[in-house]
Amino acid sequence: MTLTAHRKMQLYGALLLLPAAVLLATFAYLPTVMTVINSLFLPGFRGEPAEFVGIENYQMLFDDPTFWQVARNNLLYALGTIPTSIALALGMALFVNGKLPGRGFVRMAYFTPTILPMIAAANIWMFFYAPQIGLFNSLLERLGFSGINWLGDPSVALGSVIVMSIWKEAGFFMIFYLAALQSLPPDLKEASDLEGTSRWSFFWRVTFPLLMPTTLFVLINALINAVRVVDHLFILTKGGPNNATNLLLYYVYENAFSFFDRTTAATITVVILLVLAVVATLKFTILDRRTHYQ
Amino acid sequence: MNLASAYTPRVRYPVLPSLETVAAWLLALIWIFPLLYAFWAAFHPGEFMVNLEPFAPLTLDNFIEAWAQAPFGRYYLNTFALVAGVVLAQFVVCTLAAFAFARFPIPGKNVLFMLVLIQLFVFPEVLIVENYRIASGLGLVNTITGIGLPYVASAFGIFLLRQTFKTIPRELEDAARIEGCNWLEILWKVYVPLAKPTYLAYGLVSISHHWNNFLWPLVVTNSVESRPLTVGLGVFSAPETGVNWATVSAATLLSIAPLLVAFLLFQRQFVQSFLRAGIR
């Protein structure tokens, strides 16, 4: 290839990239940079220029007990949703991977919540959780127990939100396990059958270790979702009662669009970006190295 | 796919279902129950919401009520326009970028590609505050373009298509060039047709994502003219509006019906798309 031809190719390639580059710069890089900058300034009032305050906004944030409550909620939300939905997903995948009457229906039942908008799912679950006329409480009352204020009691509300999230996510993770199970070489099973290995130890010694890359992949996705998905809070609790179910991204939304405090919103956003950066690093180092062994 | 059945001898199911079968079915019934319950609630008068009486009269009143109380027709139109627009624009923009990454010598290509991949983690909704400012600076607030535009340069789409394009043998490209095709013709006549399964998978995942998306559309829209279904439903079912629950169920079903029907019809494609798009 001549030099000019090579140059031409380079130019052509750059032109092909241009639309994506402009859009990514506008809606990803520029806002990221602006967020970081805003977190270092205090806005000026009445046309005065913004004042550079360095890490003062972060100090303010870290002194705010509400922030720590929200961060703790988000951690509990992640700890509450992720292990359970992954375990359920694996169980579901094992169920529908084997011989099972009505397997098609069972598989569909597990996967259906995935296809629903979070808002619609929250609407449906709202009926279950409602204090007086909700299904859960009317069941409890029929059994002779007193009802629980599922979304209004600060000690129960986050748990209620978590239960709904598990229902929404488990089926999605199931399909990754199902695919992994179906790609396992069948001769492993044959060999273990010849050896007379029990199904239980076959699962723990062979299947489960071989599914490790899938588990890590699902785990990364679940971590991102735990930070990103807040739609259900708009219907179920609005972060209440008393911030008991408030999560980081919802707190950003509240600060920016209810309290009109864009500086605090920017500061929390930077914290979220740092969390996502850790998850991204995890993915690109551990996960990508692991999957090469497959 | 069915390697397992190749060696397992066919067994007849025992008369008594195994413990595993019972557990699998029980879990399935629990999982499908909320949706079935929404159906029940939507098709019966409000007073039967809780007691689930089997012979309660069926009614369509809840749907009529919901349709009358909120402009669902408009919401449908907005959602269709949004989803169609986003998916088409994503196809074009991501195809061009993926082609560049797969086949062109661009200085610093690997660094550029890593920069693109950042968007897999930093979604438009995480940056809602600044994105709102940018959208408002561009005059895109309260427009369907404003809802869709931040998602058009999808890192995920670029990544998936680049992977697919890379597997297409260069010989096909050379043959097309001998025929006198220029680059765009090669892309259109060789690469795009061979990547059809990827487009299908990505398209289905993207459709369901944008049909279901809520936070960014909520922030960037403020009136009926541009609201998609999810935001309309969120506004409709807010407790303050005092709408009764049977009506909310009907509204919920109205909002999910097209996607749900599509899913029931093309279940296999949906599941495979999520899988194909997820494994990266």
Automatic annotation (TrEMBL), chain A:
Q: Does the keyword Ribonucleoprotein apply?
A: no
Q: Indicate where this protein resides in the cell.
A: Cell membrane
Write out the entry's keywords from A to Z.
Cell membrane, Membrane, Transmembrane, Transmembrane helix, Transport
Q: Please name the GO terms of the biological process aspect recorded for this protein, alphabetically.
A: transmembrane transport
Keyword Cytoplasm recorded? no
Pfam annotation, one family: BPD_transp_1
Q: Which family does it belong to?
A: Belongs to the binding-protein-dependent transport system permease family.
What this protein is called in its record is Carbohydrate ABC transporter membrane protein 1, CUT1 family
Q: Which organism is it from?
A: Chromohalobacter canadensis
The taxonomic lineage of its organism, from the top, reads: Bacteria, Pseudomonadati, Pseudomonadota, Gammaproteobacteria, Oceanospirillales
UniProtKB/TrEMBL annotation, chain B:
- Where is it mainly found? membrane
Q: What is this protein called?
A: Carbohydrate ABC transporter membrane protein 2, CUT1 family
- Transmembrane regions: 21-43, 75-99, 111-128, 140-161, 245-266
Q: What GO cellular component is one of the record's annotations?
A: plasma membrane
Organism domain of life:
Bacteria
Bilayer disposition of the protein: Multi-pass membrane protein
Q: Does the keyword Cell membrane apply?
A: yes
Per UniProt, the keywords (alphabetical) are:
Cell membrane, Membrane, Transmembrane, Transmembrane helix, Transport
Cell membrane as UniProt keyword = yes
Q: Which GO terms fall under biological process for this protein? A: transmembrane transport
Q: Which InterPro entries match?
A: MetI-like (IPR000515), MetI-like_sf (IPR035906)
Q: Where in the cell is it found?
A: Cell membrane
Question: Where does the record place the ABC transmembrane type-1 domain?
Answer: 76-266
Family the entry assigns = Belongs to the binding-protein-dependent transport system permease family.
